[in-house]
Amino acid sequence: MPSTSRRTPSPRTILLVVAFGVFVAADDLTVVSTMLRQIIFDLEIPLPEGLDRAAWIVNAYLIAYVVVMPFIGRLSDILGRRAVYVGSLVLFLAGSIWVPLAPDLNSFIVGRVLTALGGGAMVPVAMAVIGDVYPREKRASALGALGAIDTAGWVWGPLYGALLIRFLTWQWQFYLNIPLSLLGIAAAWWALRDLPEPKTRERIDWLGTAVLTVSLISLNIALLNSGDVQAAGGFAQLQNNEPTTNTTLLYTLAALTFALFLAIEYYLGMKNQAQTGDTVTPSPRHPFTPSPLHLVTPPPLIDLTLFRRRNFSPAILINFLVGGILIIAMVNVPLLINVLEFDVETAALTSGYLLSGMTGAMAIMAWVGGQLTEKLNYRPVTAVGLFFCAVGMGLMGWLWLVDTPYLNMAAHLVVLGIGFGLVIAPIGTAVINAAPEDQRGIASSLVIVLRLMGMSVGLSGLTAWGLYRFEILRKLIDLPDLPLSDPTYQRALADGLTNVTVEVLTETFLISAGVALLALLVAFWLKRDID
Hints:
Largest sheet: none
Distance between the termini: 45 Å
CATH class of the largest domain: Mainly Alpha
Structural class: mainly alpha
Radius of gyration: 24 Å
């Protein structure tokens, strides 16, 4: 009787399977933006007094999305990619079932946190899977394709949400997630079955994980509170609003716990290094037999020696700076259009069209960037991408005025999107190639975490700068010597506030161009890998 051999899924098949989950998670990240008004209404949240509570519909998701990544990335190094990726999809499925059944806001937030924990885990694990199944010389194109699909999910999310609100209800976003999650679980269980398993079953650095979690939660709450998008867009109306949370206390807590985390990781790293000779050879029956070292001292959650490896630190720093630039484009473009358009629906539609030019270019050029990286290596592709970012932001900062045609704005955003897209693949590939095989999960998570933290810092910074500059420039508005109630005076005031707001927002574009040039300088530290 002829023997039958089981066919191993190809790397391309594995890429398609993990990219499917990443697309669904990316869609879920942005879809709520166009459904938020209806969700608030259905959950009976009173406005405006309930606005702070309603903000947690978004904030809780973002915080959970960031916080879970380092732990899950490291967990995939320890337990294996298949188990962690499938487990992430199960969490995402649980949250998708929970959310549409939620009777109130608190319950809704619990469900959104579950989907965030699952969705946030999928991206770094998918990147680590690509590092496992693709050889070094082919990883850039695969990571470029994954970045393109991830970005396409961002683009699709708001449009998808708008369609659901128009023809169904917001609950259908989560109802439809259920079969998609089940399909993803089945596909991942099959496609990832032959991935290499970890050679040792190491202990988890629970203390470092707990301390880092406290630090990330504190920092993100502080940044989100001081980076209120609505405050950034409504300078004239919200100048006197005080933060509802003590951000100074939160920043202090974040700094102290992060310093403690670094001390813990340094100590664990030194202990492990001192006892490297204590090893146990795994037996065929028990392939995950831990060494005596791991029974006594767990390895650090983040091995700090990663930052000394070739290309790791400059790539991570570039990703942080790019995150700060990206959020300024994604937030300030809609704010500027809202200032120029009196009709809310027209403003939302116009903003969506303009940003789709940027994100569409990102998706296409992420794939192109992967192909170019395999031919040219990290530095030239990254440098060209950052140059396009600087040019795009510079054009927006110098040329965007109250009467700038939308077609011109769209062209500048496409230039910016080309830059963002080109940077995705070389940076992700540089980080994964720099990491040892047993640390690809945590390295991949740091790529995403640093980009998201850059976005949070950028959002907070642009809000602080905007409010500061608006206070200065509004005092310089030339107003006619007429009564405050006079229509001519009111028109002059409205025009003056519009011009000042546009000036403030375009100043942040120029600042972003400077940040892109700074990242371009860092890109010259990227080098070819040493084989």
